[in-house]
Amino acid sequence: MKTSQIRETFLKFFESKGHTIVHSSPVVPGNDPTLLFTNAGMNQFKDVFLGFDKRPYTRATTAQKCIRAGGKHNDLDNVGYTARHHTFFEMLGNFSFGDYFKRDAIKNAWELLTQHFHLPPEKLWVTVYAEDDEAYDIWNKEVGIPAERIVRIGDNKGARYMSDNFWMMGDTGPCGPCSEIFYDHGEEVQGGPPGSPDEDGDRYIEIWNLVFMQFNRDESGVMHKLPKPSVDTGMGLERIAAVLQHVHSNYDIDLFKNLLAAARKAVEEAGATDVDPDSPSLKVIADHIRACTFSVADGILPGNEGRAYVLRRICRRAIRHGYKLGARKPFFAGLVDAVVAEMGEAYPEIKNPKIKTILAKEEERFAQTLSQGMQMLEEAIAENKNGVLDGQVAFKLHDTYGFPVDLTADVCRERNLTVDMDGFDAAMQEQRDKARASAKFKMAAGLDYNGADTTFTGYTETEHQGSKV
Ligand code: ATP
Ligand code: MG
Ligand code: MG
Ligand code: MG
Predict the structure, then answer these.
(1) pLDDT tens, 126-142?
(2) pTM for this one?
(3) Rounded to the nearest whole angstrom, what is the distance from the C-alpha of residue 73 to the centroid of ligand 2?
(4) Which of 184, 293, 308, 398 is most buried as measured by Cβ atoms within 10 A of its Cβ?
(5) Whose CA is nearest to atom 9 of ligand 1?
């Protein structure tokens, strides 16, 4: 089944169960300052869950464009390292707004997976929130999953596990215990079952999260009951596609195969030779071009603050990976065409020709400093003795060569080095203080106070904040 058919099958299945098919919302959340990017299908329904907004339906289903590259859910550093994380991905979801609850959520999910997607039940594992006997019993007694493949996740295993089965959109907002479905990709892949010490491998992959929305968490962490218990589910389209296409990695599905081939061709045309088709850098590029294409399509421009800076960072990271492979000419912006070829039908907004122009400008801008910056970084790495890159160097790269500090850290990580972030922060602070002092001096001296200076100060300040989101 092709990725586009899987998306269609999911939506049609839930439509047949009384759900209204609702369009994806943009990757920029509408009117929600608590979120940097849309990170889940439920975001656009937040106010419906909270009872502030009413819709003409109580059941909905979506394929939602998501970005997890900043804020509470941030997978930027996983990309290229795991088989299952993207910065941009599509989340398939079904929602009940005070309509059905746990039983139907679980039974529908099981029916879709085993009867429509024909997954062998013995390959599926589930987790439940430790105290959720109700969900446990539905899986065990009604669906018939044996106890060996149901894992209770909660307090007894420590905070990390607890939080894994209690889903929160962000620090505030709708939340609740959840039950997750995992697929066993087989013993030839590394990794342990959910809840085990080596669960972070790629063998048992989380495909679907069923969240039993019951609370609204406020700023002080207090949980208030929602008007009605509700359901919010999310299944990564690329992950279920990997399962259904009998491949282990998201990067081996139809859609990504084509993007990876296009990325390889583009870097080779830009000067790279003998590019390994399995190179993590190609995966990063294929992943990041989707995030960039969709971000610009939804109105974000590369810049120095907030989500604009996240976009710049994603863009520059990808360009640096191309450089690493040997590209010495622009290659990145042209890949928008490959994304459009794969996804333009489902998401016509990416057919906008401005996207390529905007990304090409950003690529051109970074090209002016990339090779010099890389040379400086290479020298610092070669001279390094303690495994920690000097914060001053990271700051100079940031300030003079436009290297976001996470890009520098990405290069360092490839060489088993870390970045001295305290040193970086101190250098940043020092520059800020200097800029302030000089502005004060100019004002006191009655000199013409030109706007360029304030812009400059703002640039470093916000750029730094952006790099931390
Ligand atoms: P993981 O533990 O693998 O990081 P998660 O628990 O953070 O996933 P959820 O917040 O539960 O993910 O999101 C619901 C579903 O969305 C997941 O079950 C998965 O299928 C998919 N998903 C989550 N993050 C990503 C990502 N970065 N790339 C691709 N798919 C993702
Ligand atoms: Mg995650
Ligand atoms: Mg998880
Ligand atoms: Mg999850």
Answers:
(1) 999 988 999 999 999 99
(2) 0.91
(3) 6
(4) 293
(5) 209
